[in-house]
Specification:
- Two copies of one chain form a homodimer.
- Chain A has helices spanning 2-6, 26-30, 45-49, 55-69, 89-101, 118-127, 145-156, 170-179, 234-247, 286-289, 313-324, 330-339, 342-367, 391-402, 428-443; strands at 76-77, 139-142, 162-166, 185-186, 191-192, 195-199, 218-222, 250-254, 279-284, 297-300, 372-375, 381-385, 404-405, 407-408, 419-423.
- By secondary structure, chain A is of the alpha/beta class.
- Chain A folds into two domains: 2-6 and 52-85 and 350-443, Alpha-Beta Complex (Aspartate Aminotransferase, domain 1); 89-342, Aspartate Aminotransferase, domain 2 (3-Layer(aba) Sandwich), CATH 3.40.640.
- A seven-stranded mixed beta sheet of chain A has the order 2-10-9-8-7-3-6, with helices on both faces. A four-stranded antiparallel beta sheet of chain A has the order 11-12-15-14.
- In chain A, helix 6 (118-127) packs parallel to helix 12 (330-339), helix 7 runs parallel beside helix 8 (170-179) and helix 7 (145-156) packs across helix 11.
- Chain A starts with a helix and ends with a helix.
- At the A-B interface, helix 2, helix 3, helix 5, helix 7 and helix 8 of A face helix 2, helix 3, helix 5, helix 7 and helix 8 of B.
- Chains A, B: Residues 75-434 form the Aminotransferase class I/classII large domain.
- Chains A, B: Keywords: Aminotransferase, Pyridoxal phosphate, Transferase.
- Chains A, B: Pfam families: Aminotran_1_2.
């Protein structure tokens, strides 16, 4: 077994993301001498509740720290799920044309609609939500799914109850804490009060046992899931929608990785009949089109979705978008339109296929070590199980022994303990090199 | 007098932005038949408090409505402050190069730092905050000032007290309401409870009487001001900083129009000694570089600024940026860097000078009607007084008689009643045409 060779050290309790709250006072802050007089403004109690740093900057920090100690190490970064392959020419040409047009009287554009350019909204409705009856008016173009999670949290406010998958993308929990939906953090359980953690692992086919899940106002649900890579089946999503209907809940469905689905799993919650009355969908061009740095996404709020008093959610979300956002960059939007053209879409399929071939290579490498490996079929993430081990220790040991950066599953919630997430984004030669380094450990 | 000829109609009480709260129930929402079953999710009480639509979409709506009734009208849009002049080539060439690089292995970039590219942060520190001792680490690159206002509100949370200029840019008040800092709206006064409205008009040289202003945790202050066009003098800003220090308040200073200052008024709050201990500054490339559609801005949070418990504000803002934002578009950031190059900066000065020449033309036109005209000297906005009149009526009448779109001052708060804001953004020939149309009214 892999861990018997690599991780012979005793796994110490994982306290990395469980740093005790620091107690700040004007005296200790002044110790550094550059800090000025204290204001009399109270620190936001919600931010006070948040533990440690946001996961991905924390990974970057540890990576940098490692590189300082080991300047000659040839790192392979399979941690933060960041795209690496060039964007097809047809898409950057469209953006370059838009950019250069901004230097002409005819091509100059100032503010666009806060909700996005109508041509793009129509293209998303037509190409991504074909046959699902989603209207262009229900699509709000954004600068990315993570940003829209926060805008949705501003929409929902502090007085809603929330459930989320455990493990899950940390922005859901952290933004819940920031807007005041969460209670105190419990060091014992590794969970915040008031939030319902829906455990999703191989034992339940990565789908929560809804018969024991309490009702909440909001259910965050990500499929294909980040970090587990599991795409919910049609049957699972039908159950989820029925559960939300029975409880009068709103599902916030994150489909940022939908383009990676290779089987018959739904690409959108709106493939499920009745979902429009209970679901919002957030999505993104980041992983679909390599737009992680370009910044473009969207959110669908169906007109049918209404609060308990009958008020349409779309009206409030429109107000949030108009007040707290000023539209996505018009350059990025021109790129988004090109992504959805016939040729652009096909070119992107090739990039996605490339990443999914990487995923296969990594699944094979970890499997060859005798480990249980999940994901990698409908998502660019591989979720590897290290039974009984602390995921931050596994993260550190893999980094030290192979110079491969992963993400400790614990960073995605207590349900991620014993796992690491491995990203399939990368150049093929680096993925092959990662595979070689991994396979070598087991035979050393 | 202008208004005796143009606005002979009796000014009815202005109820436009004071629509009564609608009472929603599942029965009336279902009347439209497309609305589904109600969820059991309560509508956010803060959004329930918000009145009417956000100002600028409301202006657009009225503009569209007018055009439908008058399809042949040749509208001149001096309403929403939207840039109209092409971006200098040197800047769009830099962006196009960045974009096309994304199609190459060498030039491809994924996620950047959430806080912005260090080269841009350094350039902002060096070029905009020269000699003010602001470090690159204290600068957070954003997708625009309006978006950062909301992120700052998430930072501050519901439990702070807030003061703001009246009139002021509506995003401050609306975002205050959304995060729960405000009380109920009072139809009599046109003000939300719990917010302190600091009246700024010609009677006090557009600077509040601080001797009668109650202490608040946060003071939103915009200079050059939108909508009045007034740039606070050094003396005024010294008073403001002293007031904040005495009260332990945090100033959120909006310098989005600083590039338009033509006299000795400070371009940044950080020109005032001691400001780093009491101020955050938000700013933008939108008006400085015609980036309204490109989306780029920044926020400065000095390390010296600390909460009452000594905790540095910058640490919490960094956490908000990392959790709720994923960085500005790397294309826009490449453009921002070009804006701050020697040649880029000079090219932009020419565009700003062009708009300020427009401002002069408009100031002259309104002045020639015997009206009191403010602004237009340090800002691209002209603030015109119509004593005793309702600003939405003035807006409508100017639209009907001259086909010029302005903004009713009332949209910026009760202190804006009797005023309209006129934007100097526009092509010269249209500004001259607007001037002709305006001057014609007075002699009709």
């Amino acid at each position: 077994m892999y861990h018997s060779q690599l991780l012979s050290s005793i796994c110490i309790p994982c306290a990395v993301l469980l740093q005790p709250k620091k107690s700040w006072s004007s005296s200790n802050s002044k110790a550094g001498t550059t800090i000025g007089d204290c204001t009399k403004v109270p620190r936001n109690v919600n931010l006070e509740k948040l533990r440690s740093g946001y996961l991905f900057p924390e990974i970057s920090r540890r990576e940098s720290e490692y590189m300082q100690k080991n300047p000659d190490a040839s790192l392979i970064r399979l941690g933060i799920g960041d795209t690496t392959q060039p964007i097809p020419d047809i898409i950057t040409l469209a953006m370059a044309e838009q950019v250069r047009g901004l230097s002409t009287i005819q091509g100059y554009r100032g503010y666009g609609a806060e909700q996005g350019n109508m041509a793009l909204r129509k293209a998303i409705a037509g190409k991504i939500y074909q046959d699902m009856g989603i209207k262009a008016d229900e699509i709000f173009v954004s600068d990315g799914a993570q940003c829209d999670i926060s805008r949705l949290q501003m929409l929902l406010g502090a007085n809603v109850t929330v459930a989320l998958q455990d493990p899950s993308f940390p922005a859901y929990i952290d933004s819940s804490v920031i807007v005041g939906q969460a209670g105190e953090f419990d060091d014992e359980t590794g969970k915040y009060g008031n939030l319902i953690y829906m455990n999703c692992g191989p034992e339940n086919n990565f789908f929560p046992d809804l018969s024991t899940t309490p009702r909440t106002d909001v259910i965050f649900f990500c499929s294909p899931n980040n970090p587990t890579g599991h795409a919910a089946t049609r049957q699972q999503l039908k159950q989820l929608v029925a559960f939300a209907k029975a409880n009068g809940s709103i599902i916030v469905y994150d489909s940022a990785y939908a383009a990676y689905i290779t089987d018959e799993s739904p690409r959108s919650i709106f493939e499920i009949p009745g979902a429009k009355e209970v679901a919002i969908e957030i999505s993104s061009f980041s992983k679909f089109a390599g737009f992680t740095g370009v910044r473009l996404g969207w959110t669908v709020v169906p007109e049918e979705l209404v609060y308990s008093n009958g008020f349409p959610v779309i009206k409030d979300f429109n107000r949030i978008v108009c007040t707290c956002f000023n539209g996505a960059s018009n350059i990025a939007q021109a790129g988004g339109l090109a992504c959805l053209s016939t040729d652009g879409y096909q070119a992107l399929r090739n990039v996605i296929d490339y990443y999914m071939e990487n995923a296969k290579i990594l699944v094979d490498a970890f499997s060859s070590l005798g480990l249980s490996v999940y994901g990698g079929k409908n998502a660019p993430y591989i979720w590897v199980h290290f039974p009984g081990l602390c995921s931050w220790n596994v993260f550190s040991e893999i980094l030290e022994k192979t110079n491969i950066v992963t993400v400790p599953g614990r960073g995605f919630g207590p349900g991620g303990e014993e796992y690491i997430r491995v990203s399939a984004f990368g150049q093929r030669q680096r993925i092959l090199e990662a595979s070689r380094r991994l396979k070598k450990i087991s035979i050393d």
